[in-house]
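Q: Can someone sanity-check these two? First one:
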Amino acid sequence: MDRSVPALRCRQIDEGDVAAVAALLGRGFPNRSGQFWRDALRRLAQREPPPGFPKYGYLLESGNVPVGAILMICSMLRQGERIATRCNLSSWYVVPEFRSYASLLVSHALSHKDVTYMNVSAAPHTWPIIEAQGFARYCEGVFIALPLFKRSAADAAVRVFDAARTPTAPFEASEQDILQRHAELGCISLWCETAERGYPFVFRPRRVKRIVPCAQLIYCSDITDLIRFAGPIGRHLAWRGRPVVVMDSNGVIPGLFGAFRPGSMAKYFKGPQRPRLGDLAYTEYALLGV
């Protein structure tokens, strides 16, 4: 290490670092306002991470001056019969003169055991870097759909309503919690109810190319549920001004009218549990609106 550089250390971001980290990320991501980062860190402050995990992420500092940061959104989620820990690595930036020490920051972020790490917004030029870190791609792109055009005779027996209401049909309590928490984050949380059960759906309002209003799929129990109820859900979203639905995909989705865009919003993971398509719960898309 260059002896002219003050001692480097990496540690968890704490509450007293929030203003400095917001300013640092504003420097690294000039397309985002300072207010965006202050709001992002405020939302992380309101969450309680799993025991032993950081509330905000990690900070790289030189002589008590922040020179790098990586945000982490850590959650405990039910996967079948077990509870799994998942961490979304987000918004990684190191000032240019300290880029050679960026691996120190990443190694701290990846030091937790039995965790599935996700990188869901990696820019194409960073793909070789994160693949060298041991990440594997699990999502090749996105499918852009117009579900409102799908019609079925069974649609009449389907009810779509806001998650503020409770289904009369059976439903999973853990999924009701997901819907309620994501509604608090500004997402569109819906129940799709049939006589057999209530099916949960979460969408994040977005704009395609910053122009066309759309709804990004954040969570559903299974992609086949969205295909099955595409018509009623699509018309409900269209009524709310969101006729286009964007969802993670590894190819064309049979049964939906739309187009697959490979390479767009590709997503990576590292760890014991391969994430499934249709589950971006508690990631940066939901919390930060990225």
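And here is the second, same format, sequence then tokens:
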Amino acid sequence: MVMWQHQHYHAIVISGLALPLVLGFVHGGLIGGIGCFMLAGMFRMFMVLNSTFAINSLSHMFGTQPHSQGDSSRDSWLISCFTFGEGYHNYHHTYARDYRNGPRWYNIDPSKWTIYTLFIMGLASNLRRLDRTVLSE
């Protein structure tokens, strides 16, 4: 899947902008097309990119360093609420091969829950964890 995305990157980006424009135009004329392009195309892209940049800046400034002080990465449950679990950045930097960002059951980490649900459904395998065990089918 990742290689397919890599090979078709430009087509994915163009369709992600063109599809909202066309659908908006069909349903709302020129104004609807521009509105959909701005909201579903440009604003979506703006939010995704800025949340990614926020993880790599805010998660190195705010929070605690419970796992390692080898770099400036920090864990913050508040940042995690807005970044799909990526706020547990200190854990991620310390145990980069672990599929989880928040290792405890109560950590707000929707990406961990999603990956584990896919594992239960048989759609993911070999989940690596801190204790170096691999969950397999």
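A (reply): Looked at the second one. Residues 2-58 form one domain. The two ends are 20 Å apart (CA to CA).
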